[in-house]
C-alpha cells in the first residue's frame, strides 16, 4: 500500500459579496463526480474553507461531503461537497469553534481515512485569514489486492488487540483477586492518556518521558484507589454488586471530570502525530506503530513471566483462587491486592498511553473501549489471564478485519460484541474457562 | 402422633438384603447406574450401582471428600454427571432440571442451610407449597384466584411450624434464626413440597445438642409418615440411632452397605475411615478429593448472587 | 406490604456475646460532627441531619442504658443542629429574595421543580420501575435498560415512518419489541451468573444503539439524526389544545403558570399521559409483588438453589421478570419518543441506563414507589445543579470565577455530582430513601 498523506488546508477569511447558501447538503456523490466549483459567500460573512488534497500527488480529492457543526451546541451549520479542486466552502454565522466532519462514505472509491486520523477536525474561527494546517491521512486501497488488505488489517488488528490486551490484563487481574467487575476501568485507560497529554503538552516533556510518567502516575492512582476506596469497602463487607455500582458512579464521576478538564474535543500529543509508514513488503507500518507493538508485547510477556514465576505472582494467583485459604496460610491478602491494583492500573494506564500515541486523546476514549475489554475478558473466560490475552487478540482482529468481510465499518465494534453474545450462548465459561467457573 | 402405631409394622424387612456394595433392594425408590463426575483429574463420584429402599431411613456416610454431597447434587440435578443414569420411581432423571426432580417428589436440603434470610419464617414455608395459582404470572395480580389456596397453605405451614416448634418465630426474618432452627426450618419447608423422598445433607451439622434429640425425632417421624429418608451425616451416634440402612462411600465409590451394626463392624469401613488418617498416600488422595468436594459445594453456593 | 417485627432483627451470623464495656454512641459523634460542620463549613446544610441524627442517638442511648455513653454530646449536637437549621433557613430566605452573587435562587428552584414533575422525570421513572422489577425484586443485573427503551421507541418510529403502518399498530410493535428482546437476551444469559447478564445486556444495548445510528441502516432507522414525524396522533389528541388557561411565555409558547412551576401545553399533555402510565405501572408492580409470584421472585433474588430445590422453575420466573421489567423499559422509550416527537440513537446510551439505576437507588430498590420518587429527586438535583452553575458562571461578573469554571464546564458539574452521589449512596445508604436494608440484593453476590 502506498500511503498518500493528504493534507487539507483550512482557510477562513471574510470576503465581501452577498450570498449565503445554507440549503440541504448535496446528495453524496458516488465517486469522483465533482460538485460545482465552490465559491465563497459574497457578503462579508466568514466561512470555512477546506481543501482536501492528496499530499503526495497533490491531486485534489473530490466529491467528498463535509459537514460543519457549531461545537458549542452541536448544531449543524451547513454541509458541502468538495469541488474539482478538492475545495469546499461553508459560510458560518460568526466567530467560534466549529467542528468539520468528513463523511467517509463519500470518499472516492479506493480511498479511505487511515486509521490514525479521525474523520473530524476542529477549527477556531477568527477574523483574519487563518491557514490552519492539519493532516487527514488518506490511504489508497484500491490498487492493493485482497491478500494485502487482509494482512494490513491483521496487523492493525494485532496492534489493537495488544492494546486491548493490556487493559484486559489489568481488568482480569483486579477481577480475579477482588471479584470486582470494575465499570470504571475504561476511565483508567483514559487516565493514562490524560496524564500523558498533561505532561507532554502542559509541562512540555517529550512524549516518551510523559508516557513513563503516566504509567507511574497510573500505578499510584491504582494504589490510592485501593487504599482510599476499595479496601475500606472490603473491610465494611460491602457486597460485590454494591461495589460494581460504586464503580459505575466512579466512572461517571471521572468521565465528566475528564471532560471538565480537557473539553470534549480530541487532543493530540506534540510528537509522532502523523508519521509516514515504511513498506515492509506485505505490511506497511509507521515507526510509532512498531514501537507500540513491541512495547505492548514485551510488557505482556514480562507480566506473564512475573505472574508465573515470582512469589508475588504466585501469591496473586493463590489469592484469586481462594482468598480465605490464602489468608489463613499466612499470606497478607491486603498487600497482594494492593500489588494487583498497582500492576493492573499501570498496565491499563500503559494501554491509554499507547492509544494516545497511536491516535488522539478524548475524554471518552476509555469508556468506548470498556465494552470491548469486557468482551475480550469474557470471551477468554472471566478471571483467567490466558483467556484475557486470547480474547483480546480475537476481539482486536475481529474489529479490524471485520470490515473486509462486510461488517459496516462505521460500526465495526458491533461484530465483536455480537461474538461476545454468541460465545455466552454457546460456551458461557469462555473459550478457555473451566466449566466449574460459571457455577 | 398417630403414625407411631402404624409405622413399625409397615417398615420393610431389610434382613434379607445382602450386605455388599450396590445391593439389590426389594422395593427401590432410587436406582442408579455408573454415575461418574470428575473434577479436573479427580473422580469425585464413581458409583457403579446404587439402590435406595423405599420407606426406610438410609444413611450415606463416609470420610470427608468421599463424594457424598456431590452424589446428592448429581441425584437432584444440581450438578451434571459426566456419565450415568438413575431413576426415581421408575422415571429416568439423567439431565432432568432440579426443579423437575423436586416436583417428582424428591426434595433435598443443603449442607449449608439455604433458608431465605430476608423472608419471614412463614413466608419461607409458604414458598414451599407446590401448584400455587398465585405463582403463575397471569393469575398473580388477581388475589381472588389465589387467596383461598394461600390460606390453606398457611394452615398447613402453621401445622408444620408447630410440629417443628418454630411457631413462636412465625413472623421473624429467617435470617434471625439460629443454625439449628434454620435446619429445622429447611426441613419443614421441604415438607411443604410433600415429598416422597426427602434427602437431608448433614442435618445435624452445627446443631446444638439440646436440639439434636428433637431433630432425630423429626427425622424418624418422617419415616413413620411413610416417607423415604436419605441423609448424609458424620455423627455416628445419629447414624446408629435412627438409620435402617447405611451406605458407605469412600473416594467416590460405594465401599460397603448394610444395617448400622453390620457396617460399623465391617473392616472395609474401618479402613475407609482410618485409612484417611494413617496411610500417607491415601491422605494425599483424600486432600484432593476434599478439594473437589469443596469445589462442588462452592459451585452450588456461588449462584447465591 | 409485609408486616415486619417490632424490633430490628440482628444480622445473621455467629451470635456475639453482648458487649460488656460501655462505649460512646457512634450516632452522637456523627451528630456532633454534622452539627459543627453545619455551623462552620456547610452553611447549615448538614444541620437538619445533625438534628435528626442526634435524636436517633438519644433514643439509642436511652434504649440501651449502661452500654452507650455520650448523652450530653448528643444533646449538645441537637441544640447546635437547631441553631444551624435556623441559620440555613435564614440563608434560604435571603437567597430567594435577594439572590446570591447574581444567582437567582427562585429561578433555580423553578427549573428544578419543573424538571422533577416534567416529562423527563417520567421517562426515568418508567425505566427505573422496570429496573426495580429486574434488580430490586429479582436480583437480575440488567445494564441494558437503554436497549429496551430503544426498541420501544424505534418500534413505534420505524413502524409509522419507515413501514407506513397506522399509529396504533406502531404502539403494538413498540410494546412487542421489548418482549422479543427480553426473550432473545434471557435465553442465553439467565442461566449464568449475575455479572455475565450485566455484560451481555450492556453489550446488547450498545449493539442496538450503534446499529440504529449506523450510516448503513439509515434508510430504516434514520442514521444519527433518527426519525421524526410519527407522533402526530399523540399530539393531536392533546386535550389541553383548546383550553384557555395558558399565558404567553417568553418565546411565544403558551405556558400554564402555576406560580412555582410552569408547563407548556405539550408538556402538560405529556405529563397527564406519562404520570397515568407511571401510576398504572406502579399498580401492576404492587399487585404482582404482593402475590406469591412476587414472593418467588424475592426468593430467587436471595437464593436460586433454595427455590429450585422446592420445585420452582427459576429460569421461567427470571424470564417473566425480565419481560415485565423490559416492557416497562420499552414503555419508557415509547413515552420518550412520544413526548419529544423524535428518536435519536444517542439518547439511548449506556449513561441513560446508569442514570435510571441511580434513580432507582436513590428512591430505594424493592419498593413500589422508590423508582418514582428517585427519578423525581434525580431530575430535581440534575436540573437544579445545572441551573445554579449555569447562572453562577454566566454574566459579566460570575459568582464562580471563569478560570475555575466556564459556562461549558458548568453543565458537567451536575454529572460529576451524580457520579459522586451514586458512590456515596451505595456506600452509606444502599437501601435508598425508602428501601429496607435487610431486603435488597446489594449485599449478595
The largest β sheet of chain A comes out as: 5 strands, antiparallel
Oligomer: heterotrimer
Strand content of chain C: under 5%
Order of helices and strands of chain A: EEEEEEEEEHHHHEEHHHHHHH
Number of E-type strands of chain A: 11
Chain pair forming the biggest interface: A-C, 47 and 50 residues
CATH architecture of the largest domain in chain C: Orthogonal Bundle
List segments of chain A where confidence is low: pLDDT < 50 over at least 5 consecutive residues. Answer: 1-35, 128-135, 137-142, 435-439
By DSSP (H or I, 4+ residues per run), the number of helices of chain A equals 11
What is the molecular shape of chain A? globular
Strands of chain C, total number: 7
Task: Please mark out the parts of chain C with pLDDT under 50 across 5 or more consecutive residues, or reply none.
Answer: 1-20
Q: Span from first to last CA of chain A?
A: 50 Å
CATH class of the largest domain in chain C: Mainly Alpha
Mean pLDDT of chain C: 84
CATH class of the largest domain in chain A: Mainly Alpha
Order of helices and strands of chain C: EHHEHHHHHHHEHEEEHHHHEHHH
**What is the number of domains of chain C?**
2
Attribute tags:
heterotrimer, A: 439 residues, alpha+beta, Immunoglobulin-like, ABC transporter involved in vitamin B12 uptake, BtuC, five-stranded antiparallel sheet, four-stranded antiparallel sheet, 50% helix, 15% strand, disordered N terminus, B: 305 residues, alpha/beta, Rossmann fold, 2 domains, six-stranded mixed sheet, 12 helices, 20% strand, globular, disordered C terminus
Q: What would you say this structure looks like, in words?
A:
The complex is a heterotrimer of chains A (439), B (305) and C (445). By secondary structure, chain A is of the alpha+beta class. Chain A has two domains: 3-140, Sandwich (Immunoglobulin-like); 147-438, ABC transporter involved in vitamin B12 uptake, BtuC (Orthogonal Bundle), CATH 1.10.3470. Chain A contains eleven helices and eleven strands. In chain A, a hairpin with a 4-residue loop joins strand 10 (277-279) and strand 11. The N and C termini of chain A lie far apart (50 Å). Chain B contains twelve helices and ten strands. Chain B starts with a helix and ends with a helix. With 445 residues, chain C is mainly alpha-helical. Chain C is 65% helix and 4% strand. Chain C contains 17 helices and seven strands. Chain C has helices at residues 26-39, 47-63, 71-98, 105-117, 119-138, 145-162, 167-189, 194-213, 218-221, 232-236, 265-289, 292-302, 304-309, 314-340, 350-363, 370-392, 407-428, and strands at 23-24, 68-69, 227-228, 247-248, 254-257, 262-264, 342-343. Chain A binds chain B through residues 241, 436, 439, and chain B through 39, 295, 298-300, 302-303, 305.
Amino acid at each position: 500500500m502506498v500511503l498518500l498523506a493528504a493534507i487539507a488546508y483550512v482557510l477562513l477569511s471574510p470576503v465581501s459579496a452577498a450570498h449565503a447558501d445554507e440549503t440541504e447538503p448535496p446528495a453524496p456523490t458516488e465517486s469522483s463526480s465533482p460538485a460545482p466549483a465552490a465559491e465563497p459567500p459574497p457578503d462579508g460573512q466568514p466561512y470555512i474553507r477546506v481543501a482536501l488534497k492528496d499530499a503526495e500527488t497533490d491531486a485534489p480529492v473530490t466529491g467528498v461531503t463535509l459537514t460543519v457543526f457549531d461545537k458549542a451546541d452541536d448544531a449543524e451549520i451547513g454541509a458541502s461537497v468538495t469541488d474539482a479542486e478538492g475545495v469546499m466552502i461553508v459560510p458560518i454565522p460568526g466567530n467560534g469553534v466549529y467542528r468539520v466532519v468528513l463523511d467517509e462514505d463519500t470518499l472516492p472509491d479506493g480511498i479511505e481515512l487511515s486509521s490514525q486520523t479521525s474523520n473530524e477536525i476542529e477549527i477556531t474561527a477568527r477574523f483574519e485569514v487563518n491557514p490552519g494546517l492539519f493532516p487527514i491521512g488518506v490511504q489508497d486501497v484500491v490498487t492493493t489486492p485482497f491478500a494485502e488488505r487482509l494482512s494490513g488489517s491483521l496487523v492493525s488488528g494485532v496492534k489493537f488487540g495488544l492494546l486491548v490486551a493490556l487493559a484486559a490484563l489489568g481488568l482480569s487481574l483486579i477481577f480475579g483477586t477482588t471479584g470486582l467487575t470494575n465499570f470504571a476501568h475504561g476511565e483508567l485507560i483514559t487516565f493514562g492518556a490524560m496524564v500523558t497529554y498533561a505532561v507532554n503538552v502542559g509541562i512540555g516533556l517529550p512524549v516518551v518521558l510523559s508516557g513513563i510518567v503516566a504509567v507511574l502516575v497510573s500505578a499510584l492512582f491504582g494504589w490510592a484507589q485501593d487504599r482510599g476506596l476499595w479496601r475500606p469497602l472490603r473491610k465494611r463487607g460491602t457486597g460485590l454488586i454494591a461495589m460494581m455500582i460504586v464503580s459505575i458512579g466512579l466512572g461517571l464521576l471521572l468521565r465528566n471530570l475528564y471532560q471538565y478538564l480537557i473539553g470534549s474535543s480530541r487532543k493530540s500529543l506534540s510528537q509522532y502525530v502523523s508519521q509516514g509508514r515504511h513498506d515492509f513488503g506485505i505490511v506497511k507500518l509507521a515507526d510509532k506503530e512498531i514501537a507500540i507493538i513491541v512495547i505492548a508485547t514485551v510488557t505482556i510477556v514480562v507480566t506473564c513471566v512475573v505472574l508465573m514465576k515470582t512469589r508475588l505472582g504466585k501469591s496473586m494467583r493463590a489469592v484469586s483462587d481462594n482468598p480465605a485459604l490464602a489468608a489463613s496460610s499466612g499470606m497478607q491478602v491486603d498487600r497482594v491486592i494492593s500489588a494487583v491494583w498497582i500492576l493492573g492500573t499501570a498496565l491499563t494506564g500503559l494501554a491509554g498511553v499507547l492509544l494516545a500515541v497511536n491516535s488522539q486523546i478524548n475524554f471518552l476514549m476509555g469508556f468506548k473501549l470498556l465494552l470491548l475489554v469486557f468482551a475480550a475478558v469474557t470471551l477468554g473466560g472471566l478471571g483467567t489471564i490466558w483467556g484475557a490475552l486470547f480474547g483480546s487478540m480475537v476481539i482486536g482482529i475481529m474489529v479490524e478485519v471485520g470490515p473486509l468481510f462486510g461488517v459496516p465499518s462505521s460500526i465495526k465494534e458491533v461484530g465483536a460484541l455480537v461474538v461476545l453474545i454468541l460465545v455466552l450462548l454457546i460456551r458461557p465459561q469462555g473459550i478457555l474457562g473451566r466449566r466449574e467457573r460459571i457455577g | 402422633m398417630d403414625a407411631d402405631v402404624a409405622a413399625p409394622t409397615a417398615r420393610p424387612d431389610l434382613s434379607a438384603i445382602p450386605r455388599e456394595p450396590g445391593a439389590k433392594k426389594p422395593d427401590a425408590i432410587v436406582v442408579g447406574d455408573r454415575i461418574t463426575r470428575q473434577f479436573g483429574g479427580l473422580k469425585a463420584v464413581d458409583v457403579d450401582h446404587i439402590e435406595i429402599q423405599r420407606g426406610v431411613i438410609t444413611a450415606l456416610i463416609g470420610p470427608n471428600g468421599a463424594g457424598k454431597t456431590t452424589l446428592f447434587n448429581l441425584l437432584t440435578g444440581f450438578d451434571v454427571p459426566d456419565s450415568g443414569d438413575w431413576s426415581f420411581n421408575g422415571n429416568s432423571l439423567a439431565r432432568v432440571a432440579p426443579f423437575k426432580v423436586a416436583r417428582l417428589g424428591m426434595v433435598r436440603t443443603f449442607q449449608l442451610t439455604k433458608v431465605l434470610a430476608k423472608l419471614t419464617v412463614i413466608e419461607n414455608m409458604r414458598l414451599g407449597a407446590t401448584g400455587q395459582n398465585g405463582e403463575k404470572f397471569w393469575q398473580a395480580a388477581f388475589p381472588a384466584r389465589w387467596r383461598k389456596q394461600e390460606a390453606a397453605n398457611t394452615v398447613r405451614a402453621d401445622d408444620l411450624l408447630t410440629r417443628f416448634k418454630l411457631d413462636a418465630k412465625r413472623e421473624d426474618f429467617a435470617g434471625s434464626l439460629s443454625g439449628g432452627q434454620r435446619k429445622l426450618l429447611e426441613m419443614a419447608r421441604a415438607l411443604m413440597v410433600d415429598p416422597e423422598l426427602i434427602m437431608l445433607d448433614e442435618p445435624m451439622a452445627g446443631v446444638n445438642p439440646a436440639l439434636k434429640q428433637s431433630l432425630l425425632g423429626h427425622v424418624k417421624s418422617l419415616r413413620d409418615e411413610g416417607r423415604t429418608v436419605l441423609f448424609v451425616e458424620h455423627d455416628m451416634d445419629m447414624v446408629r440411632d435412627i438409620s435402617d440402612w447405611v451406605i458407605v462411600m469412600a473416594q467416590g465409590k460405594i465401599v460397603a452397605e448394610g444395617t448400622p451394626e453390620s457396617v460399623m463392624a465391617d473392616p472395609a469401613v474401618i479402613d475407609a475411615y482410618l485409612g484417611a488418617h494413617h496411610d500417607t498416600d491415601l491422605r494425599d488422595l483424600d486432600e484432593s478429593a476434599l478439594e473437589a468436594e469443596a469445589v462442588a459445594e462452592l459451585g452450588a453456593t456461588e449462584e447465591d448472587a | 406490604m409485609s408486616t415486619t417485627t417490632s424490633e430490628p432483627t440482628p444480622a445473621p451470623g455467629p451470635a456475639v456475646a453482648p458487649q460488656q464495656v460501655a462505649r460512646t454512641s457512634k450516632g452522637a459523634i456523627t451528630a456532633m460532627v454534622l452539627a459543627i460542620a453545619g455551623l462552620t463549613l456547610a452553611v447549615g446544610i448538614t444541620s437538619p441531619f445533625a438534628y435528626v441524627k442526634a435524636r436517633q442517638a438519644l433514643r439509642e442511648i436511652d434504649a440501651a442504658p449502661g452500654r452507650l455513653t455520650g448523652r450530653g454530646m448528643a444533646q449538645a449536637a441537637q441544640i447546635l443542629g437547631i441553631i444551624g437549621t435556623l441559620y440555613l433557613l435564614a440563608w434560604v430566605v435571603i437567597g430567594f429574595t435577594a439572590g446570591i452573587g447574581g444567582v437567582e435562587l427562585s429561578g433555580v428552584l423553578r427549573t428544578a421543580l419543573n424538571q422533577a414533575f416534567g416529562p423527563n422525570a417520567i421517562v426515568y421513572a418508567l425505566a427505573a420501575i422496570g429496573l426495580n422489577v429486574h434488580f430490586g425484586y429479582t436480583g437480575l443485573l440488567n445494564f441494558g435498560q437503554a436497549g429496551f427503551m430503544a426498541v420501544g421507541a424505534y418500534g413505534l418510529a420505524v413502524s409509522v415512518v419507515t413501514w407506513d403502518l397506522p399509529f396504533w399498530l406502531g404502539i403494538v410493535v413498540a410494546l412487542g419489541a421489548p418482549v422479543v428482546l427480553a426473550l432473545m437476551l434471557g435465553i442465553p444469559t439467565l442461566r449464568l451468573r449475575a455479572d455475565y447478564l450485566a455484560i451481555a445486556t450492556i453489550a446488547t444495548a450498545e449493539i442496538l444503539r450503534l446499529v440504529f445510528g449506523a450510516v448503513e441502516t439509515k434508510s430504516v432507522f434514520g442514521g444519527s439524526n433518527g426519525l421524526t414525524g410519527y407522533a402526530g396522533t399523540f399530539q393531536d389528541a392533546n386535550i389541553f389544545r383548546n383550553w384557555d388557561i395558558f399565558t404567553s411565555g417568553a418565546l411565544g409558547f403558551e405556558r400554564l403558570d402555576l406560580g412555582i412551576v410552569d408547563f407548556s401545553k405539550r408538556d402538560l399533555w405529556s405529563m397527564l399521559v406519562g404520570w397515568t402510565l407511571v401510576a398504572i405501572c406502579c399498580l401492576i408492580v404492587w399487585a404482582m409483588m404482593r402475590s406469591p409470584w412476587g414472593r418467588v421472585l424475592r426468593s430467587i433474588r436471595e437464593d436460586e438453589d433454595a427455590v429450585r430445590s422446592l420445585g420452582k422453575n427459576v429460569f421461567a420466573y427470571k424470564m417473566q421478570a425480565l419481560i415485565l421489567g423490559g416492557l416497562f423499559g420499552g414503555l419508557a422509550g415509547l413515552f420518550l419518543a412520544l413526548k419529544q416527537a423524535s428518536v435519536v440513537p444517542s439518547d439511548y446510551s449506556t449513561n441513560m441506563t446508569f442514570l435510571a439505576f441511580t434513580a432507582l437507588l436513590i428512591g430505594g430498590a424493592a419498593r413500589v414507589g422508590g423508582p418514582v420518587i428517585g427519578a423525581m429527586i434525580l431530575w430535581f438535583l440534575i436540573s437544579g445543579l445545572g441551573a445554579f452553575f449555569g447562572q453562577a458562571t454566566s454574566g459579566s461578573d460570575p459568582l464562580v470565577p471563569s478560570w475555575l469554571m466556564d459556562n461549558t464546564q458548568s453543565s458537567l458539574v451536575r454529572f460529576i455530582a451524580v457520579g459522586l452521589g451514586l458512590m456515596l449512596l451505595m456506600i452509606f445508604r444502599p437501601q435508598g430513601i425508602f428501601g429496607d436494608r435487610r431486603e435488597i440484593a446489594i449485599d449478595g453476590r
